[in-house]
Amino acid sequence: MAPSQSPKRRVLITGASGNIGKMLTARFADRYDLVLLDVEEAMTDEGMPVNGADIRDIGQVRPLMDGVDTAVHLAGDASPQATWESVYELNILGTRNVLEAARDAGVRRVLFASSNHAMGMYDREGQWPVYNHQLPRPDSLYGVSKVFGETIGRYYHDEHGLEFIALRIGWSTEELSERDEDLLHAMWLSPDDTAQVIERAIEADVPFGIYYAISDNPNRRWDLTNTMLELGYRPQDSWDEVLGEREEVVEGGKPADPHWPNV
């Protein structure tokens, strides 16, 4: 008699039609039982349905949480130039709704897509290295909304026992050559490393944590120690190898544009 296989984890991805959502769907389709959510109904390139739901309305989000093991929350306004009205509705209210719907449905874990912009003032002022345990210093209202997400996630973990992992994602893109900016190269997160760190955040036996998520770039300024030790993340890619270039070594790191992140 053949041994029975363990059922796949059911993983909900909000913002599934965005860049990272598409990366994950392509790489996780065989790994997990995916439930996809975005503001409009669609079909993925893999032929999977994307459920249309507005995260500003918890009544639309809650039914999609049934049977979910882990919610990967990517949805929201991802622009550092976003207005207060937008980050309030999509990033603050929307994140609270995802957490509350997950709690109500008995979801085991929420993985929150935070951002380097939660700590961006350290970057603007060149105060490197940056560690996950330092006080947040957002560089924009978008960054403020990510600090809120990390904080309310801590509350839902402490108050309700919901497992919560926040990943401070760097610059996740396949088009690495589109911007010749040292700070962006330093925080690049490749598509494969994006999938790896999110998979580790889903699977690791860690009930709460805040972690940087960046590839193995030679000029990075953000500490990956706890990401590697606690989640088991091992970045495989680096911007210099992909572009076939060598880093220009500057002691202390090249200064950031004084208008960061508006560059």
Low-confidence segments, ≥5 residues, pLDDT <50? none
Ends apart, CA distance between termini: 62 Å
Q: Report the count of strand segments.
A: 10
CATH class descriptor name? Alpha Beta
Number of helical runs?
9
Q: Looking at the structure, what is the overall shape?
A: globular
Calculate the mean pLDDT score and round it.
95
Q: Bin the helical content.
A: 25-40%
Question: Gyration radius, to the nearest Å?
Answer: 18 Å
**How is the CATH topology named?**
Rossmann fold
> Biggest sheet: strands side by side, in what order?
3-4-2-1-5-6-7-10
Number of separate structural domains? 1
Strand content: 15-25%
- Which structural class matches the secondary elements? alpha/beta
Largest sheet: 8 strands, mixed
CATH superfamily: NAD(P)-binding Rossmann-like Domain
Please provide the ordered H/E string of secondary-structure elements. EHEEEHEHEHHEEHEHEHH
CATH architecture: 3-Layer(aba) Sandwich
3D structure, described in words:
The protein has 263 residues and is of the alpha/beta class. It has one domain: NAD(P)-binding Rossmann-like Domain (Rossmann fold, 3-Layer(aba) Sandwich), CATH 3.40.50. Helix content is 35%, strand content 17%. It contains nine helices and ten strands. The strands form two sheets. It has an eight-stranded mixed sheet with strand order 3-4-2-1-5-6-7-10, with helices on both faces. The chain has a two-stranded parallel ribbon with strand order 8-9. α1 crosses α7 and α3 packs parallel to α5. The mean pLDDT is 95.
